Amino acid sequence: MSDRVRIGVLGPVVAWVDGAEAALGGPRQRAVLARLVAARGRVVTADRLVGDLWDDPPPGALPALRTFVAALRRGIEPGRPPRTPARLLVTEGPGYALRGVDVDAWSFETTVAGARDLAPAAARTTLDRALDAWRGTPYAGLDQAWAVAERARLAELRLVAIERSAEAGIALGEAADVVPCLDAHVTEHPWREDGWRLLALGLYRSGRQADALAVLRRARAMLAGELGVDPGPRLAELEAQVLRHEVGSAPAPDDVWRDTASAYERVVAAGARTRLESTATLLRTLALTGGDGLAAARSQRVAAVRAAEQLGDPELTARVIGAFDVPGSWTRSDDADAAAQVAAAAERVLAALPEGAPDAVRARLLATVAIESRGLPGPRGPEAARRAEELARRAGDPAVLAFALAGRYLTCFSRTGLAPERDAIGVELISLATRHGLSTFEILGHLVRMQALSALGDFAAAQRHADAAAGLGVRYERPLVEVFTGWFAAVRVATSSDPADGVTGPTGRGAVDAAEQAYRRAAAALDGSGMPGLAEGLLPLAVLALRVWHGLPADIDSRDDDGWGPYEPWARPHLLLARGADASAAVRRIPGPPPGLLTEVLWILAGRAAIAVGDRRIAERARAALVPAADEVAAGSGVLTAGPVREHLAALTGFLAG
């Protein structure tokens, strides 16, 4: 069996087996191989191949195709034992596909696309190496329509690579060296506006302002005379800059974005799979902006995953799902339906991946399952998080491990009293992210510690992490951070920490009112945040928890009662009690809280309501659930508090003993 097979179509169609040229047979046989290359690994049906090989297929076209395929297999797999399955030119369903081969055109496309994100020196080296792979006219000698289309596409991509390489050379201060190449480039391809622009820029950077202006005027005359169009905005802008001697100024960010987006649209073919991966990466960035960006990213993420699944390529779908490694710091999903769809898709891909799929790929999928299952009962979320962490540690990829730790944090709520475990996750996240430049996960680590240390009653340390998260949020333009730190500031108003007495909270109705005002100010920052999972019902819940802690009636101000959302079952008994109504039935209907950051607070509300109506069953359930958190403060969310758990346990224990 051969060690390495490489196929070349950047010139005449040829194949090499372990460096030696393979026997591919005649033109029609080579056309079969070329057509499969043009399919980029996708299956091409036998009927489609026949139609693409012959304008008027003869009666024996299908048997002839099978003969060509058999001969090609012998040519590229000379060491394959008889009657064993082909591993390179494989039969799949009704057609054929290439697997496990290197193709110069595929490598060229990948390299040119990857060079977009490289610094100028690396970009030039990479692009020049890619251009060296060209041996002549792509798919030379083939005149079928598909070959003509592929030839034109690759030729366009080659021109883009030449221009990008020249632009990198200019950026490196080597303008004089690239001018001759660009001069030849525009002579051969006079319709290339970017070629004219770069030639003029190279001349200007070489100290040849007059020549640069002459080139720009030649370009204007050629475009108007030959194509009947005016120069584009970049060419016109460069001419104005040359006249003002302003070409040395750095491009504006909007210009870079516009030019890159334009190049992407021009170079990456519509329908190309890489567009889905690029979309997923863009959606990740969009999600971190909050507001409408976060909402759009959520909805479009589901669409991207569905589109990837329709292509029937589990590895592509895994990359699309895994690219959206946006962690969460809240345990209730903003869109439960979308989360369920993404989690289900990740489960399907996990089942469909080949046995040898990398640990890092599986870890990302499992972490996705964990994150999208947050706040749901059942073992799957925690199980997926634990397995993701195991695989991530084995893979040795810090970004994957950070994502897996984010998943474990969001599922670390199987019972109350787990703040120390979550704090340890935050410690590792900060350390890992700081060492490897993972800013999003560094912010998450500080928010996790802010929450966990609030539960542990160390508000001074929690404040340090809130400040660190806020600073990183400003530096990296993460506006959602200030939502959480703003609510934490309200918690600081609602609590006080004394070395002797612990958390005492505000004393007097005036101090409680001040805390409630702080909650209202924090709630204002939630408007337009794009986080309904956090916002819905949070303000009235915060006010209610504060009043229950201090034994005040739940006569919630109408401006705070903007809908209780998911917290209505725990609030209803207290609202009835405040009106002097019978709350017994409402207490009996109180469910067990979902696993999450507010579990302790919701159990406290249930337990206090049970005491008020004399319901021993609910009181016992609340006491048993809260015992593991006896030494904590019901403030583990970092956004609201119901005070020290031990105070409520004492009340429940006294009631049950009576």
Question: Termini distance?
Answer: 82 Å
- The helical percent reads 55-70%
SS strand fraction: under 5%
Major sheet strand order: 3-2-1-7
Summarize the SSE layout with pairings.
Elements: E1 5-8, E2 14-17, E3 20-21, H1 27-38, E4 44-45, H2 46-53, H3 61-76, E5 89-92, E6 95-98, E7 102-103, H4 104-114, H5 120-131, H6 145-171, H7 175-188, H8 193-205, H9 209-227, H10 233-244, H11 253-267, H12 273-287, H13 291-310, H14 314-323, H15 336-352, H16 359-372, H17 380-395, H18 398-410, H19 419-436, H20 439-455, H21 459-475, H22 481-494, E8 497-498, E9 502-503, H23 509-524, H24 532-535, H25 538-549, H26 568-578, H27 584-588, H28 599-613, H29 616-626, H30 645-657
Parallel strand pairs: 1-7
Antiparallel strand pairs: 1-2, 2-3, 4-6, 5-6, 8-9
Helix pairs in contact: 1-3, 4-5, 5-6, 6-7, 6-8, 7-8, 8-9, 8-10, 9-10, 12-13, 12-14, 13-14, 13-15, 14-15, 14-16, 15-16, 16-17, 16-18, 17-18, 18-19, 19-20, 20-21, 21-22, 22-23, 23-25, 26-28, 28-29, 28-30, 29-30
